[in-house]
Design brief:
It contains no helices and 11 strands. The protein is mainly β and about 120 residues long. The radius of gyration is 14 Å and the shape is globular.
């Protein structure tokens, strides 16, 4: 599975960005897709997940501000980020989890930088 993330950039606090993650695989065959983020010196943090059934979960820090969604026709997952805060500054990574023959496989996209200025 190849993942292509895009949409990062520089935005002022309170602004919005939408990240995209295009997959090379039919999105219905991917058990879950997530967005993670990472800042220097810190562990990668789970931001949001959407399952193959469409259920979504969020980190507490982004609930009510971020929305994960998918466009099945384009095999693409989005992360709409509103009311951005400087603390949201990070490299954001797209992630896919696939179960094949009872074994899980993880795939990562390249990161996309999000910078929120105060």
């Amino acid at each position: 599975v190849q993942l292509q993330a895009s949409g990062g950039g520089l935005v002022q606090a309170g602004g919005s960005l939408r990240l995209s993650c295009a997959t090379s695989r039919n999105i219905f065959s991917i058990n879950a897709m997530s967005w993670y983020r990472q800042t220097p010196g810190k562990q990668r943090e789970l931001v949001a997940t959407i399952t193959s059934s469409g259920s979504a979960n969020y980190a507490h820090s982004v609930k009510e501000r971020f929305t994960i969604s998918r466009e099945t026709a384009k095999n693409t997952v989005y992360l709409q980020m509103n009311s951005l805060e400087p603390e949201d500054t990070a490299v954001y990574y797209c992630y896919a989890l696939v179960f094949v023959s009872g074994m899980s496989r993880s795939y990562w996209g390249q990161g996309t930088q999000v910078t929120v200025s105060s």
